[in-house]
Amino acid sequence: MASSTTKTPPVSIDNINPKVLNCRYAVRGAIVSHAQRLQNELQTNSDSHPFDEILYCNIGNPQSLGQKPISFFEQVVALLDNPAILKKQQTHSLFKPDAISRASQILEIMPGKATGAYSHSQGVKGLRDAVAAGIQARDGYPANPDDIFLTDGASPGVHKMMQLLIGSEKDGILCPIPQYPLYSAAITLHGGSLVPYYLDEETSWGLEVSEVKKQIEIAKSQGITCRALVVINPGNPTGQVLCEDNQKDIVRLCKEEGLVLIADEVYQENVYVEDKKFNSFKKISRSMGFGDDDITLVSLQSISKGYYGFCGKRGGYMEITGFCREVRDEIYKLSSVSLCSNISGQILSSLVMNPPKEGDESYESYTEEKNTILSSLARRAKILEEAFNSMEGVTCNRAEGAMYLFPRLSLPTKSIQAAKVENIAPDAFYAHRLLDATGIVFVPGSGFGQVDGTWHVRCTILPQEDKIPSIVTLLKAFHQNFMNEFSD
Question: Where is the Aminotransferase class I/classII large domain (predicted)?
Answer without folding.
Answer: 110-461
